[in-house]
Predict the structure.
Amino acid sequence: YFTSALPNLKSSVYRLVPASKRARFVDLSEQITDSVGHYVIGQLTLGAINGVLSAILLTIIDAPFPAVLAVIAFLFSILPLVGTLTGSAIIVLVCLIPGLGTPDTTWIIAAVYYLVYMQIEAYVLSPRIMSKAVAVPGAIVVIAAVAGGAIGDILGALVAIPIAASAIIIIQKVVFPAQDRKRRRPADAQAPAEPA
């Protein structure tokens, strides 16, 4: 419902801006909206990678309910920072349950795999995918996610990267041009006129 009503909502907000500044405001708003959309696509990509790799591994090691556990891995990976850890812990605990006909080493293999995968996701996959998705440098992606998680828990981590991307867009499109205009102003224009 919200997605279908978003164009009307945006056009109503745009009309609140004075006509002289509306085109610039619309351009910035569209860039920020696109950035948030790309962030969501990036998170879904990370979730899909985790889900597919989990399905392959869990099938190979004969884990119980590999398809269900792969869906759990996918869904939890959508949450930044704590999602992959939580999903991995659930999967390892399910592999640990006795009486499901799994070999005794299944949970150990799953635990080692997820420890390695979490490091690769945190330091390789996530910064690369997010820097391409939201055009934010990898270091800022990691810093924003950690800071957002520390400030606002899961909700803070969810919105941290889109906020960082939005801030970068505003700085590049508004602050830097304003600073450049101030530098280009001739010195004569700033000096007070001498009395005649």
